[in-house]
Amino acid sequence: MLALRRIAELVGAAGLLVALTASLQAQAPQFAAPQATPQPISGAVALRLLPRGTVLQAADVGGDSSASVLGYETQRIIAVGETLRAPAIAPAAIVRSGDAVSVRVDVDGISVSRRGIALGNARLGQPVRVRFGLHSLSGIATAPGVVRLP
Predict the structure, then answer these.
(1) Cβ(119)–Cβ(96) below 8 Å
(2) Number of domains into which the chain is organized
């Protein structure tokens, strides 16, 4: 009930998300989000010159394991015929710098969300900073265009 009263007091305040985040950090231990670590992938090769930042599609890759790398993103320039494996490729970012994102925070079963602008790129489970006017907070990328505050 105390949490509901606190949220009700903050609803009209400009710093609602800042206050909720501070409250959550004081009440709950920090958690480590799982990091998506790409494993070396053999058998998939580049069918064309792939610039850095290319999200792999069927026309870009060939070989036995080509389906397993679809949706991955190149981390550097990849030459024609080069085997695709980490760290040259990694899961694609689900939040990109400059994107409008939905920032969510949960307190005692109540979910509050607000729109913000991502200040960096993040893959699933990675931290990313989000700007709200003059303020910014760090959260965890949980889905495309969604950042959850710890």
Answers:
(1) no
(2) 2
For residues 84-113, one letter each, b for 16 or more C-beta atoms within 10 angstroms of the residue's C-beta and e for the rest, the string is bbeebbebbbbbeeebebebbbebeeeebb
Q: Do 124 and 50 lie in a common domain?
A: no
Identify the DSSP state of 15. Answer: T
Q: Residue 66: give the domain boundaries.
A: 44-86
**Least confident residue range of 39-43, 105-109, 110-114:** 39-43
Q: Are residues 79 and 111 in the same domain?
A: no
Give residue-wise pLDDT tens across range 72-106. 999 999 999 999 988 999 998 999 999 999 999 98
